[in-house]
Amino acid sequence: MPELRQTALMALHHEDDSLIVCLGGNWLLSATCRPGIGEIALNVEEYRVRRIAVDGTDLKEWDSCLILFLFQLDEYCRQHQLELNVEAAPQGAQRLLRLATAVTAQAGPTHAAPSWLERIGLKVQQLAGEVHEFTHFIGEASLSAFRFLIGRGRHRRRDLGLLLEECGPNALPIVTLISLLVGLVLAYVGAVQLQMFGAQVYVANLVELGMLREMGAMMTAVIMAGRTGSAYAAQLGTMQVNQEIDALKTLGMSPMDFLILPRMLALIVMVPLLTVYADIVGIFGGALAA
Fold first, then answer.
1. Cβ atoms of residues 215 and 182 within 8 Å
2. Distance (Å, rounded) from C-alpha 206 to C-alpha 225?
3. SS3 breakdown of the chain: % helix, strand, coil, rounded to 5?
4. Neighbours of 260 (CB within 10 A)
5. Distance CA 138, CA 129 (A)
6. What is the pTM of this model?
7. What is the average pLDDT score of the chain?
8. pLDDT digits over 7-47, tens only?
């Protein structure tokens, strides 16, 4: 008896071009055997059915399991242009099925491609926003630097020392390697070209001028932007995500004084020194190549 209570029954009958789906037993979510619409789909293809009727006169107990079956059957009929008749199903199931199929998926609003004038306006608006943000940053940095000069800046000297070490001595290995290689390359390239004119003696002048005027400062700037600048951006971005910057604002501390200004001062102090060091190492590399 318990097994019969947990069984959902379905029988199929054909009448001309119609398929009658007779439901019986207990259509419950806890039923051990629940028929699907796969058998119905096979009969539709085999007998070229145009209409499907559901007969639920033999149903005993049912819950959302029956509604799910009817909803799937309704979707199948919509996709295959079949007529579905559920008038013989329980009244409550009919109402729930109508409620489930009343709201159809609505396509999202379609937006036409903006005209060329609108695109220009959007670009100008974006550029104006970026200029405003950059100007605001420069203004805040200038005020923070002024407070530092008059002795009213709020920052930790220990942090400034750590930042000087990070963007100074810790950057010496990569600056040394790049500058040495640049000096070597300048010497080799210059020697090959000047040899055609018998002016190898000017290779030293070429390396010196190239490193002091252009390559030393440029390579140092590239290294600091790629190494130290990206590290600063990652640190500040992580602090923003972790709401540490918001915590500083809550405590009444300026993030510009406490975070930005020490990093700017460290770069202002160390970049010229690293540039001089890169010039010396580059000239030494050129001397090795000569």
1. yes
2. 27
3. 70, 15, 20
4. 19
5. 14
6. 0.55
7. 84
8. 778 888 888 788 888 888 888 887 667 787 888 888 888 77
